[in-house]
Amino acid sequence: MRKLMLMxxxxxxxxxxxxxxxFTLNGYVRDASNGEELIGVTVYxxxxxxxxxxxxxxxxxxxxxxxxxxxxxxxxxxEPLEKEVNLNSDVSMNIELKEIAxxxxxxxxxGEREDEQVVNIQMSKNEIDIAQVKKLPALFGExxxxxxxxxxPGVISAGEGTSSFFVRGGSAxxxxxxxxxxxxxxxxxxxxxxxxxxxxxxxxxxxYKGGIPSRFGGRLSSILEVRTxxxxxxxxxxxxxxxxxxxxxxLEGPIKKDESSFxxxxxxxxxDLFLKAANQDNIVYxxxxxxxxxxxxxxxNRFFLAVxxxxxxxxFGDDFGFDWGNKTATFRWNxxxxxxxxSNTSLIASRFxxxxxxTTDSDGFQWDSNITExxxxxxxxxxxxxxxxxxxxxxLTYRQFSPGIIEPEEGSIFKKTExxxxxxxxxxxxxxxxxxxxxxxxxxxxxxxxxxxxIGEQMVYDYADVRDNRNPERTDSTFYDSFENIKTxxxxxxxxxxxxxxxxxxxxxxxxNRMVQNTHLVSSGTVPLPFNTWAPSSLxxxxxxxxxxAIGYFKNLDNNNYEISVEAYYKDIQNVTDFAxxxxxxxxxxxxxxxxxxxxxxxxxxxxxxxxxxxxxGFVSYxxxxxxxxxxxxxxxxxxxxxxxxxxxLNVVATYEYSxxxxxxxxxxxxxxxxxxxxxxxxxxxxxxxPDIITERNGFRLRDFHRMDFSATLTPRKNAGKxxxxxxxxxxxxxxxxKNPFSVYTRVQMDDDDNIVGDGTQKxxxxxxxxxxxxxxxxxxxx
Length: 783
Hints:
It is a single chain. The longest helix is centred in the N-terminal third of the chain and has 19 residues, at 2-20. The radius of gyration is 28 Å and the shape is globular. By secondary structure, the protein is mainly β. A hairpin with a 4-residue loop joins strand 28 and strand 29. The chain has five helices and 51 strands. The protein has a 22-stranded antiparallel β-barrel.
C-alpha cells in the first residue's frame, strides 16, 4: 500500500510538472521592404487571448505552457501574418511584415496598432508620425517634427519661428530631447525656423508628457525621443530635396545584404549664397549631418553607431558674428542573454557650444561656452510571461559645464576672462514592472533612484549673504580637487500608472510621476536662445522637483477609425529656478548670487480627436491650462504668471488624399497671448528721470496668436522602367498674413517721419512680428 501511494504521488508530481512545463517564443519583427525593426507590433496568441508588443528595438518574447498555438503578428499599415507554432521547446522566430497595397479609401496613418490608445497603459504620450509630418504645410517647405510636436495637446509653442516648446506648465529647459538616445540641448536652426531633425532620416518619435516610464529621468516636464532609421539592408536607395532655403540628400543601403546597413544624410541652407550674389558681406547658413551604421552579428547580438553634427553660422560683415551647434555620438549593443532577458548597452557623447565674436579695433573679443557630457547606459528587459515584464538598469553621466571664456582681440578694451568650469556626476538606478492583473486591469509601477554629485576641480566661495546680488561679499573659499565630492543630492522618483478597460473601445487611465532635474538653464529671456548658459545643481542651487498627477478617458469609435481622449493634470514644481529682479546675467563672476528658487503650480485639461483612416485624416487638439510661479525676490515676492502661461490653445490639422497624384494639407492654430514684462511708466524727481519703471513681472499679455497654413503635394505616376519617384510640395505659410506678435519693445514716441514727439520723454510700444504670408515650393526625388 505504501509503495502504491508513493507511486501515485510521484505520478502526480510528474503530471503537475508536465502541466506547468513552459517554453519561450521570441524574435524580431522587421519591415520586409528594408529590414527595419518595427516598434509596437502586436504579437497576439489566439488560444490565450493575450499577447505582447515589440519593444523599441523590435524584439518580442512570450513564455507559454507547452502546446500548439496560432500567433498573429499585426501592425497598422502592414499585412497581418499568422504562424502556427508547436511550442514543445524554446523557439526563436524572426518575422517580416509586408506593406498593405492600399486603395485610396484605405489610406491610414501608420505607426501603431489600431486600438493602441485604448489597450496600452501608457497615457499622456503622442506618437509623431513622420509620414503625416511630411504631408503637412511647412515653413519654407521643410517638414519639421518640432512644429508638429507644438500642436499636440498640452504643448505650447514659445512663439512664431522658434523650436522651443513648453509642456504642461514646465519651461523649455525642462524638456529632454533625444536623438538616438543622445541629448540635444538646442534643437533649432536659424533661431527656430528649422529644427535639427531632418525628416528624411527619422524612423519614429514619441513625446511623453506624463506617466513617464522609470527608464527616463533628468527633466521635469517631457521626453521627446527621436530615433533615426537604421538603413535599408535589402537594396541601395535614397532621397533628395531642393527647397527655397535649404536642400538635403539622404543615401542608404546594405553593407552586407540582410546583415549590415548604413544611412547618411546631409542638409544645408544657402541664404549666404543669395546674400553673396547680392554683394552682401553677411553670412547666414546652417548645416547638419546624420550618419548611422549597424551590424547584425547573429540573432543575439546587434551593434549600432550613430552620429549627428549640426551648426549655425551668422556673420555680419567683418565686425560681428556668432555660431552654435550640437554634436552627438551613440554606440549601442543589443544583446539577448537568453529567451527572456534582453539587454541594451549604450555609450553616448553629446556637446553643445556657442560663440560670439567681434573684430573691431577697440572692443574685439571672442566668447565661447559649452556643455559636454558622456553617458553609460545599461538597460535590461525581462519578460516573465505575457502578463508580467520588468525593465531595469543603471545610467551614469559625467558632465562638464563651461559657462564662458572671453579672448580679447589685440588692442581691445576687454581682458581675458574665464568663468569657472563646473563638473558633475549623475547616477541613476531604476526598475519598472508592467503587470496585467486581468484582461481589464493593468498596473505599471516602478522607481528611479537619482544620485547627483557636484564635483571638482573647482573653487567654491562662501558669501556673507548669497542672496546679496548688488554687493556680493566673498568671505571664504574652498578648493576641491578633480572628482572630489562637493555636494551630493539623493532623490527617489516613484512612478505609477493604471489602466482599466471598460469595454473593447473604452478605457480609463491614471498616472503619477515624480521627476528630478539637476541641470538648470541660465536665461533671463522669455524665449530660450542658443546663447543661454547651463549650470548644474550645486552647493547653492538645489535640484528641481516635479510631482504630476493625471487622469484620462480614452475612446475609439467606428472600428478604430476615430480616437478621442480627454486628460486632466496637476503639476507641482519645487525649487524652480529664476533670476532676481534686475539681475546682472552677462559675464557675472558671482552669478550664483542672482539665482532664486521658488515654486510653480500648473494644471489643465486636454482634448484630442484624431481620424486615422480614409482619404481624410488629421486631428483636433485643445488645451486649457494655467501656470503660475512664486519665487523670492522676484516680482516683489508676489505670485506671477509663468512666461508660457496661455489659457487656451487650439490646433486643427488635416491631410486629404484627393487622388493617387494629389495630396492636400492644412492646419490652423490659435493661442491666447502669452505674458510679457513691459515698463508701466516713467518717474521724474527734481532734475532726475527714470525712463522705464517695471512694476510687475509678466504683467502684460501679447495679443492672441492665430495662423492658417496650406500645402499641396504632387506625385506624378511612376513610369514603367524608372527606378525613381519625384514629387513637388507647394506650401502657403500664414495664408491670411496675420501679424502675430513675436515680442514687444518700447522706444521714444515718434511720428510717421521718425521724428521725436515732444521732449522725448513719451514712450510707445512697438510690435515685432516675423512672417507675413510666405509661399514656398520643394522638389523631392527618391530612388
